[in-house]
Amino acid sequence: MPRQVSAFSNPTVKLLRSLRDKKARRAEGLFLAEGLRILTEARDSGRLPEIIAFSAEGARHPLAAEVIAATEAAGGDAIETTADILSKMSGKDNPQMVIGAYRQPETSLGRIDRSKAPLWIAVQALRDPGNLGTILRTGDAVGAGGLILLDDCADPYSVEAVRASMGAIFTQDVAAAPWAEFLSWLRAGEGQLVGTSLKASQDYLEAEYQRPCFLLIGNEQQGLPADYEAECDLLVKIPMAGRADSLNAAMAAAVMAFTIEASWR
Prior knowledge:
five-stranded mixed β-sheet; seven-stranded parallel β-sheet; 2 domains; 11 helices; CATH 3.30.1330.30; 20% strand; Alpha/beta knot
């Protein structure tokens, strides 16, 4: 049976609150996901939370009841609490009625099976967690295998990134590595590295994309470093008809991902 928790001083409440902080996420190996839709996506992807917190109202929804029961059956901790405490956990004035704490998967490149999907997205030094979450969602939508974080990226397991992913954090493989390690791993097998650059002469609509394709998206402000561009097998540009010189990183990733996928049909 779920535990009733009504005190802000409860250790589980303190733990869940702490997971809004990157240092605590790393120390605990856990991250937060909020909302019935995302928790249901996780369940359907074979992932259950180690801790699930919910309001009495939230538990009345049939899907929420299923996830709560499955969590308890798997040995997880289920706590019923108040809207005020849920708000403290999520950091939102109007919190979701169900919140889960999930184990962070291991993020080494070695767990990536490049033959699993024809398209993978790699991002270099992306700083906006909302962009990361949106790119994860794009990867899920286009059938990509996952997201590879290069160099110093924002945390894909932050509340903001998980929220923006709309559940794709559970359907996409996530790996992280320095550039040199990624390049060595990439060249040890098959894979075309495709970068986007304002300096490229090849139009993205006219390029020939090979499988597996690794789409490389650069930092929001600086784009890709010149030496990273030099390592790409193919550099393309998305022409701008207006005054803007480039797209937002997440938007560029979406345009490129769907273009690459469409070219193989």
